[in-house]
Design goal:
The protein is mostly helical. It is built from 14 helices and 3 strands. It has helices at residues 2-7, 12-32, 34-40, 47-68, 72-95, 117-135, 143-161, 166-182, 187-211, 217-229, 239-251, 275-308, 312-336, 355-408; strands at residues 97-99, 102-108, 113-116. A 3-stranded antiparallel β-sheet has the order 1-2-3. Strand 2 (102-108) and strand 3 form a beta hairpin. Helix 2 (12-32) runs antiparallel to helix 12 (275-308), helix 7 runs antiparallel to helix 8 (166-182) and helix 8 packs antiparallel against helix 13 (312-336). The radius of gyration is 25 Å and the shape is globular.
Length: 409
């Protein structure tokens, strides 16, 4: 155990935040899965507690292993994973498991484990975009040589994710464009792409609203947008939004205390999409503020890594992965307090999950890998500086000694 602790490198603040979020996850998931346990596990309320605990332990192990790997290895994996992601996303749309009219999961044979292919696609895309940005800095302002090779894969992946999970596709696209902005991509090219995307979305939504065509997820998008636009009418609010507001009101400033939530028995998916509402009810506005602060500190530390990293790929990798995790967290919180329409976005490293937590852990492990290599680089430079200083002092002392000897003669 001590050997493992000695091998833990990277930003210690990020490691601390990972532990804090894991503890919050265990408490919140255990509190919010009581009704689910009675329905699915015949009253075994500890089932989901131990399941989430095991998932998080494996997630921390993934972070440890990933942070020990040199982050340059991920540049070689980026294109391979991106190529694999495209057929997997197509397969998911056609043959994936369908929940709430959304085909987002595929079931792996033999081990009987389901996972969201979009999680792997997101990670692969950010590694690819980071690598391309670092590689094409000399031609980054050029439309054909710099912009298109980066944005075409982004558009393809977002287009394949959108039918099943529009919110994830939009957040992913926005995060990639933010990373491209940081990577000095021509703003005119980015704005043109945004304008084209807005016009395309408006045409699709307008066609759906006017004709009533498009079942499944398209109808769900339509209802969510309509309800959000008419949120002043309480009868038009989605049921989960109403229950989330009740949970927030019950929590007040200091909360009702751990395990004392009432809305967990009424709120749909209180352990995943709306787990932040349960946290606000049990720990109050103070608990919610501290949780949000954890994510913002995580982003701040990642920006610090970005500034200190001497190599472009590692810098873009750290800032890109941190942006997507924090933006997802803020989007989940915004949905809970009804600042955004209802989506299927979970709270990273807190909501109940399996492979989603593991892919999040892998992303954090990669960020810590960059941080670890930054520390190694800085120690090496510091050592070289001290050696040069010592050599310079030795030369100065020798020169002074020779001068004294010459004067005495």
């Amino acid at each position: 155990m001590q050997k493992w602790l000695n091998n833990i490198k990277g930003d210690k603040v990020i490691w601390t935040i990972v532990i804090i979020l894991s503890l919050v996850s265990v408490l919140a998931v255990y509190s919010s899965t009581g009704s689910l346990a009675y329905r699915m596990q015949k009253g075994n309320t500890e089932y989901y507690l131990f399941k989430q605990l095991s998932v998080l332990v494996l997630g921390i192990l993934i972070i440890y292993v990933a942070h020990r790997v040199n982050y340059m290895v991920y540049s070689r994996l980026a294109k391979i994973l991106l190529i694999i992601s495209v057929p997997l996303l197509i397969y998911t749309l056609k043959f994936g498991s369908t929940i709430n009219e959304a085909s987002r999961w595929i079931r792996l044979p033999v081990i009987n484990l389901t996972f969201q292919t979009s999680d792997m696609a997101k990670l692969a895309l950010f590694m690819y975009v980071s690598f391309q940005l670092s590689k094409k800095q000399k031609v980054i302002k050029d439309f054909k040589k710099g912009f298109l090779p980066i944005m075409i894969p982004v558009c393809i992946i977002c287009f394949l994710i959108m039918p099943a999970n529009m919110s994830t596709a939009l957040l992913l696209g926005a995060s990639c464009m933010l990373l491209c902005f940081i990577g000095r991509v021509n703003i005119k090219h980015l704005m043109a792409l945004v304008a084209a995307g807005v016009v395309g979305m408006a045409l699709v939504i307008g066609l759906v609203f006017a004709t009533g065509l498009g079942g499944g997820r398209v109808t769900t998008w339509k209802h969510r947008i309509e309800h959000f636009n008419h949120h002043e009418d309480k009868q038009e609010e989605p049921y989960q939004v109403q229950q989330a507001k009740i949970a927030i009101a019950n929590g007040g400033i200091f909360g009702r205390g751990p395990g004392n939530s009432e809305e967990r028995n009424f709120l749909p998916h209180p352990y995943s999409d709306f787990i932040f509402a349960i946290i606000l009810e049990e720990y109050g506005m103070i608990g919610g503020f501290l949780l949000m602060t954890c994510y913002l500190i995580f982003l701040f530390r990642s920006i610090r890594i970005f500034k200190r990293c001497p190599y472009a790929f590692g810098a873009f990798l750290a800032i890109g992965l941190s942006f997507t995790l924090v933006i997802q967290a803020l989007a989940n919180m915004a949905v809970t307090v009804n600042l955004l329409p209802v989506t299927g976005v979970t709270l990273p490293l807190v909501s109940m999950g399996g492979t989603s937590i593991w892919f999040t852990s892998l992303a954090i492990g990669i960020i810590l890998s960059v941080s670890r290599n930054v520390e190694i680089y800085e120690k090496k430079k510091q050592k070289e500086s001290l050696e040069n200083k010592a050599a310079s002092e030795e030369e100065t002392a020798e020169s002074e000694s020779n001068d004294e000897f010459a004067m005495s003669n």
